[in-house]
Amino acid sequence: MRIGVISEFNPFHNGHKYLIDKAKEILLQNGGGEIISVMSEFFTQRGEAAIIDGYKRAECAVESGVDLVIALPYRASVCGSDDFSENAISILDKCKIDMLIFGSELDSNIFADIYKKEYSENIKEKVISLTKKGYSYPKIMAELFDLPKDIPNFILGYSYYKYIKKNAPHIKIKVVKREGQILNKKELTDEKFLSATAIRKNINNKNIKKYLSNQMYDYLINSNNISEEIFYKELKYKILSLGKKGLKDIYDISEGLENRIYEKNLISSSYEELIKNIKTKRYSEKRIKRILLHILLGATYKEMKQNINEVRGLCVKSEKTYLIREINKTGNIYIYQKLNKKNSKFFDFDIKVSRIYNIYYKEKDIFKRILRRA
């Protein structure tokens, strides 16, 4: 049996280990197998810079029970929930997973009911109406299906469910009830598990240590942790240099949003102020963050819509290296263990992304890094 995990592990904490342990229990009940994770590397789905280097996060995941961690390319990791789900599950499907496991604030037994309602004609009209009023996707879901407002794991999990239902019905779904702190909470509280957000916002507080492995804690306090705010000057310059005409080519910019971005950039003096000035009911903070990253990195529609048939391995369990050979032999997808002049053509954009990220993180150049074994 082969179980897939879609991850960011930003950073890898005890809540993630809890999910991996549940996957290991399922494997044990089914005669064994492997856990494969596809993980966002330099920037995350919500449009933020990863606080810890991808190889280090992958290594901690493997030390905690994952057998193989694959890098999710930028064009797959920094996008809305439906595109994110499609890209990530497509990669895992090509790796021949039998089950996808993920955490959620709510049980999965209501996925089917929501799916049935969402694709009825009556609901479609309401979705269009609410979209025109400026409702974001999570708000539309809450409004139409009587859901709580702060359930980001469930909303993303529903996107997983939709993709599998339509395109990969052979993949089973296992939902683990999320425990501990709500996903986006920033404060430290005395709970079973902290959110990754709270850990990132409180790196200098020693109380976070009990929620992390010793290895991850050491990485956190000894690494040059970065955030997207550090790129503000470069971003401001990029918006000015592209101009309104150039901004039109950037992925996810439509309906005249380039005008608003350009004008608000002129009156903003910080990254947070820029987001606040651009944000509207229709354009959520997360979407604006993703768009600003696309501008910084020059991500156009052409680059973001390319198919993914080649990926990079980040870390593998020493006794499970055969997994890479097995997957590569299928011909569905190819996992590279290191970059060279020949295969780098498949990763041109991610090479650029890594080098911009490492202006501040200051890790080794991506060409000098190889698959880790743990």
Automatic annotation (TrEMBL):
Species the sequence originates in: Gemelliphila asaccharolytica
Signal peptide (from-to): none
Subcellular location, principal: cytoplasm
Gene: tmcAL
Protein name per its UniProtKB record: tRNA(Met) cytidine acetate ligase
Primary role: Catalyzes the formation of N(4)-acetylcytidine (ac(4)C) at the wobble position of elongator tRNA(Met), using acetate and ATP as substrates. First activates an acetate ion to form acetyladenylate (Ac-AMP) and then transfers the acetyl group to tRNA to form ac(4)C34.
A Pfam family reported for this protein in Swiss-Prot or TrEMBL: HIGH_NTase1
Family: Belongs to the TmcAL family.
The entry's keywords: ATP-binding, Cytoplasm, Ligase, Nucleotide-binding, RNA-binding, tRNA processing, tRNA-binding
